């Protein structure tokens, strides 16, 4: 109980430090539970809006507010994604936001919506340092950077740590540049951002890279799916797109993917795929790298670049990529999200070889496995290891 009080006081202190007085400050709290923080905020003069999907908890909040003669606490029953989406579409804005999600952390959709509320401060209360790190990395790309982190030992004699993090508005964190020359810029694309502008997303990799380099005329050579990370190519002039794309087609790409179940040590999938409204030849080769917790970590080499080729082909043999919401297994995806923090497709473009760029030898580009995927593997290995 003492630590719970200390966490609450830390949240209030961080908000005061970021906003000054809390009088008439509009605060949105997601995953509000029975509203202990909301009651304290109202006593400070704030105008809290509390969101909680478990309605009995909101009943306890109403009872506590009545017993303490507190009015002016707004409540919304529903899950965070739905209510937050409604607030964003309604053009609602808040001075501050508090989130206290379960162990799996914030969903990609919630993270994307949070930045649209115009809040000057976000306080993130986390019970899992690994999903917290994943979420902070994504939020930093969206313009919310961690300013202070305080750990709390909520449950003695175990490894669990509660963290309270203050985030404030800042310039997006820089993209990692893997290669740059007179025509080519190669970055390690982070997950959850589209390669080029999409109407439903506030930011994209192309726009972030243009701002980072101060080069307004960059052009994408190829596009990685929003949930895929790894090597991503851009050029500085539009006339360079075609020759670099041809060099990419003449070379090869190798992905790392975690597949549901145990696949053969190696295999080749030759199944035509619909692409551009036509059935087109498609071949994908894979080699199993390791077995992890009853699932297969594979290296995948598509011979063409058909739309969703890797994901479609692997799903067609009964071993979809874990985390793939479109072609994957929903039950496995939910398990990996809740148990291991996997909130996107486990697919990473690790290696690209460009062939035929003038007289030069092939250009080899590599990106290490994305940190969020490395954590998923580590957690899977830890839970499946013999005791």
Mean pLDDT: 94
Class inferred from helices and paired strands: alpha+beta
- Beta strands, count: 19
Rg, alpha carbons: 23 Å
Can you count the helices? 11
Oligomer: single chain
State which percent range the strand residues make up: 25-35%
Characterize the largest beta sheet: strand count, sense, and whether it forms a barrel.
10 strands, mixed
- Percentage of residues assigned to helices: 25-40%
Question: Topology of this structure?
Answer:
Blueprint (H helix, E strand, L loop, with lengths): L1 H18 L6 E5 L5 H8 L3 E6 L2 H13 L6 E4 L2 H10 L6 E4 L8 H7 L6 E6 L2 H13 L2 E9 L9 E8 L6 E5 L3 E6 L15 H9 L5 E2 L8 E7 L5 H10 L1 E8 L6 E5 L2 E3 L2 E3 L2 E10 L2 E8 L6 H8 L13 H11 L6 E8 L8 E4 L4 H14 L3
Parallel strand pairs: 1-2, 1-4, 2-3, 4-5, 11-18
Antiparallel strand pairs: 5-7, 6-7, 8-9, 9-11, 10-11, 12-17, 12-18, 13-16, 14-15, 16-17, 18-19
Written account of the structure:
By secondary structure, this protein is α+β, with helices and mostly antiparallel strands. Helices cover 31% and strands 29% of the residues. The protein has eleven helices and 19 strands. The strands form three sheets. Strands 8, 9, 10, 11, 12, 13, 16, 17, 18 and 19 form a ten-stranded mixed β-sheet that branches. β14 (273-275) and β15 (278-280) form a beta hairpin. α4 (80-89) runs parallel beside α5. The chain starts with a helix and ends with a helix.
Structure in a nutshell:
This protein is an alpha+beta fold. The protein is built from eleven helices and 19 strands. The chain is 31% helix and 29% strand.
């Amino acid at each position: 109980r003492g630590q719970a009080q200390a966490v609450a006081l830390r949240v209030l202190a961080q908000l005061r430090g970021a906003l000054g007085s809390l009088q008439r400050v509009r605060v949105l709290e997601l995953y509000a539970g029975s509203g202990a923080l909301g009651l304290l905020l109202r006593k400070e003069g704030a105008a809290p809006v509390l969101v909680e999907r478990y309605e009995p908890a909101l009943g306890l909040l109403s009872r506590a507010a009545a017993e303490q003669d507190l009015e002016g606490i707004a409540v919304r029953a529903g899950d965070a994604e739905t209510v937050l989406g409604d607030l964003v579409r309604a053009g609602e804005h808040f001075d501050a936001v508090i989130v206290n999600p379960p162990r799996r952390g914030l969903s990609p959709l919630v993270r994307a919506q949070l930045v649209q509320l115009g809040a000057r401060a976000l306080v993130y209360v986390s019970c899992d340092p690994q999903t917290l790190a994943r979420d902070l990395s994504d939020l930093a790309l969206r313009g919310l950077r961690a300013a202070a982190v305080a750990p709390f030992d909520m449950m003695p004699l175990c490894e669990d740590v509660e963290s309270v993090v203050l985030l404030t508005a800042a310039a997006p964190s820089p993209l990692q540049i893997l290669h740059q020359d007179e025509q080519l810029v190669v970055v390690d694309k982070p997950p959850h951002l589209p390669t080029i502008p999409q109407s439903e997303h506030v930011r994209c990799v192309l726009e972030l890279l243009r701002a980072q380099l101060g080069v307004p005329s960059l052009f994408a050579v190829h596009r990685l799916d929003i949930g895929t990370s790894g090597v991503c190519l851009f050029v500085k002039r539009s006339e360079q797109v075609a020759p670099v794309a041809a060099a990419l087609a003449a070379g090869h790409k190798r992905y790392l993917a975690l597949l549901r179940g145990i696949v053969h040590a190696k295999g080749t999938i030759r199944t035509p795929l619909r692409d551009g409204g036509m059935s087109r030849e498609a071949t994908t080769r894979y080699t199993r790298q390791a077995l992890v917790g009853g699932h297969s970590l594979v290296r995948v080499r598509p011979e063409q670049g058909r739309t969703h080729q890797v994901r479609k082909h692997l799903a067609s043999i009964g071993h979809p990529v874990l985390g793939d919401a479109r072609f994957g297994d929903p039950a496995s995806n939910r398990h990996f999200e809740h148990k291991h923090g996997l909130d996107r497709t486990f697919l990473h473009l690790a290696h690209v070889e460009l062939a035929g760029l003038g007289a030069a030898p092939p250009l080899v580009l590599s990106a290490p496995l994305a940190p969020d995927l490395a954590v998923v593997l580590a957690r899977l290995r830890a839970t499946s290891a013999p005791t």
